[in-house]
Design brief:
Blueprint lengths: L1 H6 L10 H9 L3 H12 L1 H8 L4 H13 L5 H16 L7 H13 L1 H11 L16 H8 L4 H10 L2 H10 L2 H13 L2 E2 L1 H15 L8 E2 L3 H10 L2 H14 L1 H9 L12 H10 L2 H7 L5 H8 L4 H13 L5 H20 L14
Antiparallel strand pairs: 1-2
Helix pairs in contact: 2-6, 3-4, 3-5, 7-8, 9-11, 10-11, 10-12, 11-14, 12-14, 12-15, 14-16, 15-16, 18-20, 18-21
């Protein structure tokens, strides 16, 4: 690695020591090298990249950007040369369909991009469920709204969780609980069900695809879809689902975002949440919480406020578990509303998306 960095340096002309620069470059991690490239892009372009990253990635990259702020110009040039060299080694232009889809949606918006893609999408992509990746949520919901709930559940299970949540939102209210319950109950899809789904797809797109038993759905998939559902939709949906099958509703809820997920939120989000919930409610919710979660809130308070908060919380004495759980639910509802409004990043929505 040091030899590669050394070879990328210009001949010694009395300037900086090539060996010192090589050592400087070799010491850089891949994240720091990415940080150097990001800083070279400029503020607007860098912001466009960062908004697509997960919170933890943003934190790591931000720390790396700070750590390379004093990197010598010669070392920066070596990192840039290395990046260009890597690009030159690419044997083809990458991206394909996914790249085109992202570019169009960023350039002209979701609705217009979907319209354009529907016209130019290659025939090879018109195969079974693959075509769903080219459709917007409203169009998918309109296509499946009159189908059997099991077919709706299969379609939801094949979609990305955030898209499935949007499709669920556009479906008639009386179908939502039934659909999410069936998603939770799915384990495998047999060829007969796939055949029925393929028939629906052929009506829309004259498509064909091979049939096989597929593993999809399940309680965890249903919970992840629910994590993306808007908070006002979620309350009514869970109420209907509880009436339909209380045990299943509880299992889905157990796999949804938990109060403990708040420990994964960034400090700004925690501060936003604390401003939105009464301190008394937070004291109750933090009763029995682990130290990591407690510290997440306490370290976002001033020293004086922290001392007062801890004293008051300890002064409350033992509390009923039901009271603590209800306080946590209320705070999570507030967190979800803030997340829906884009005012905070909620760790656990989807995989590690916040």
């Amino acid at each position: 690695m040091a030899e590669a960095a050394q070879s990328a340096l210009p001949a010694d002309t009395g300037g900086p020591d090539p060996e010192q620069i090589a050592a400087e470059v070799t010491a850089l991690s891949n994240t720091q090298r990415a940080a150097v490239m990001l800083m070279l892009l400029g503020e607007e372009e860098a912001a466009s990249v960062i908004r697509h990253l997960a919170p933890k990635e943003v934190q790591h990259l931000s720390a790396a950007m700070i750590s390379v702020a004093d990197l010598s110009q010669e070392a920066v040039s070596v990192v840039l040369d290395g990046f260009i060299g890597t690009i030159k080694k690419q044997t083809n232009i990458g991206g394909g369909i996914d790249y085109l889809e992202n570019v169009l949606r960023n350039a002209i918006g979701e609705d217009k991009a979907s319209s354009v893609l529907s016209r130019i999408m290659p025939a090879s992509a018109n195969r079974g469920l693959e075509v769903l990746q080219w459709m917007d949520a409203r169009s998918i919901s309109e296509m499946i709204a009159n189908e059997h709930p099991q077919i709706i559940a299969i379609v939801l299970s094949f979609l990305d969780y955030d898209v499935a949540a949007d499709v669920l939102r556009f479906l008639p209210e009386n179908l939502r609980a039934e659909a999410i319950a069936r998603v939770a109950s799915l384990e495998t899809i047999q060829p007969t069900a796939m055949q029925e789904l393929e028939t629906i797809m052929r009506k829309q797109f004259s498509s064909n695809s091979s049939l096989k038993s597929s593993s999809v759905g399940g309680v965890k998939a249903a919970a992840k879809i629910m994590n993306y559902v808007k908070s006002e939709v979620e309350q009514g949906l869970m109420s209907r689902l509880t009436s339909r099958d209380a045990d299943l509703a509880q299992r889905i809820q157990d796999n949804m975002i938990a109060f403990e997920n708040l420990s994964g939120c960034d400090n700004r989000s925690i501060q936003t949440l604390m401003r939105a919930v009464p301190s008394d409610l937070l004291m109750v919710a933090l009763k029995g919480a682990d130290d990591i979660l407690k510290d997440k809130f306490l370290l976002n308070m001033s020293q004086r406020a922290r001392e007062m908060f801890v004293d008051e919380m300890e002064g409350k004495g033992p509390m009923r578990l039901s009271e603590v759980e209800e306080a946590r639910k209320q705070i999570l509802r507030t967190a979800r509303k803030l997340s829906d409004a884009g005012e905070m990043m909620l760790s656990g929505r989807g995989a590690d998306y916040v």
